[in-house]
Amino acid sequence: MPATFSHHFDTPLYNEKATIQTGLFINGVFVDGVNHSTIDVINPSTGKTITSVSEGTAKDVDRAVEAARNAFNTSWGLKVPGATRGQFLYKLATLMEESLDEIAAIESLDNGTAFGVTKGWVVPFSIGLIRYYAGWADKISGQVIETDEGRLTYTRHEPIGVVGQIIPWNAPLLMFAMKIAPALAAGNTIVIKPSELTPLSALRVCSLVQEAGFPPGVLNVVVGYGNTVGSAISSHMDIDKIAFTGSTLTGRKVMEAASKSNLKNITLELGGKSPNIIFNDADVDQAVNWACHGIFFAQGQICFAGSRIYVQSGIYDEFLAKFTARSKMHKIGDPFGADSYQGPQISSTQTERVMGYIKSGVDQGAKVHLGGQRHGEQNGNFITPTIFTNTTPDMKIVQEEIFGPVSVVIKFEDRQDVIQQANDTIYGLAAAVFTQNISQAFEVGHALKAGTVWVNCYNEVSAAVPFGGFKQSGIGREYGSYALEHYVNVKAMHINIGHKME
Ligand code: NDP
């Protein structure tokens, strides 16, 4: 049987012990993988191994799918009322709340996000998501559609079946909650793969799923690598739907595997290169604060990070000076350090990747206005907040998703020009407009090709408000009732109550 890992956090912020089962979670119990191999989980702050977890394989995906199919047919799906499914989700949310500090500490240890952020926002928001969808579970229904007096016509919104889900490392618990809650509320059963870089919070929550008494097999977690477990899920013939979050590159592979296997239903939440547009009439101090939050929150490892900042010429110098001063104030370091705002990038590979982008910016002639370096020890995963100026639209740092604390600040003159520049990207995840002119806010907001547009704010999300991408940022929506639509099959029922066939 897989081990239990216990870690005592010896910090002023959380001086307690956390306990995690490190096996795969299949059919309601923690089990060893069929190959009995393990994956080391590395602390991104120190580079040291935190623990080892069981490594799943394609055969473990088969076991998990079998358990999920059985649960779907016997103890979930159409076999239990929506209200009952909601009660299980409410119970899970309550148990998570009781362990909030422990889950937050695990998340910060594993992912490097500051403990103040995981405790203050990530975990509470994830719990809120589960409660939000618990409330939906008994409100998912079809329509009665008037046709003529001789017929009764109505639709049923039926669960799809076994759902495969693949999530990344940048916001592990939030991604986990965002994926499982609507799928379970709608009556599906799940096989989910967390990133092998950050599996710990999902495994901790699995113990709470057990405690909440979910029927075995409703939720299965198979930790493993993308090219084994991820591709086994996307190409599995008995998985009815796949929901993926990660890079656009991998999203293409998942879509290809889905189409080459059983043409499973698919939703994708992919990358972004989101423009943040600040007009002359904006409240500059507020724009600076939101812009900092927009790009530097969570080390810039956010799909909707506001990485391209367009500032109108009349306030460009003032904005840049204040944005620079504010960015310098961020405390970088140990996620458990008092006042830490920015922790480490997730891994040395990802740190090298971000540093490679910074080098490409320099090589292509952009100016490093701030940062551009590693912070602290030579080989640590910390990168100073970075601001580039003197860019041109074709540069890699203007076009590609960096997924680190790197911004470009670009001067613009007129509205039509900035709309054109903002839309000049393969992505369309999010955008923001800062202005005091309400007509300008609407006009620009409507012209931007993005799934979310913020006006005079950034990074605002709500469990009830849809989120997702235009263009190559994805297919489908997370959050709100929109997410539920991706987890049901709509069946039309035609009942003949009076028509005779002659
Ligand atoms: P990936 O897209 O490679 O990984 C996301 C998930 O997909 C992981 O669980 C990964 O597993 C899995 N995966 C990898 N290959 C396959 C495959 N062939 N079939 C099925 N699943 C697979 O993102 P990375 O973690 O490598 O990050 C790279 C870049 O992706 C980032 O720099 C960023 O640009 C972008 N990204 C975007 C995110 C977003 O929210 N939009 C989130 C994370 C990353 P494994 O862990 O083994 O790779």
TrEMBL record:
Could you tell me which Gene3D superfamilies the record lists for this protein?
Aldehyde Dehydrogenase, Chain A, domain 1, Aldehyde Dehydrogenase, Chain A, domain 2
Give the keywords, sorted.
Oxidoreductase
Query: Looking at the keywords, is Oxidoreductase present?
Result: yes
The record's section on InterPro entries has: Ald_DH/histidinol_DH, Ald_DH_C, Ald_DH_CS_GLU, Ald_DH_N, Aldehyde_DH_dom
GO BP annotations listed: acetate biosynthetic process
One of this protein's Pfam families, by short name? Answer: Aldedh
Q: Which GO terms describe its molecular function?
A: aldehyde dehydrogenase [NAD(P)+] activity
Q: Which domain of life is it from?
A: Eukaryota
Please indicate if the UniProt record lists Oxidoreductase as a keyword.
Answer: yes
Name the PROSITE patterns for this protein: ALDEHYDE_DEHYDR_GLU
Instruction: Kindly identify the residues recorded as the active site.
Output: E269
Residue ranges of every copy of the Aldehyde dehydrogenase domain listed in the record: 33-492
Family named by the database record: Belongs to the aldehyde dehydrogenase family.
Q: What is this protein called?
A: Aldehyde dehydrogenase
Source organism of the structure: Lentinula guzmanii
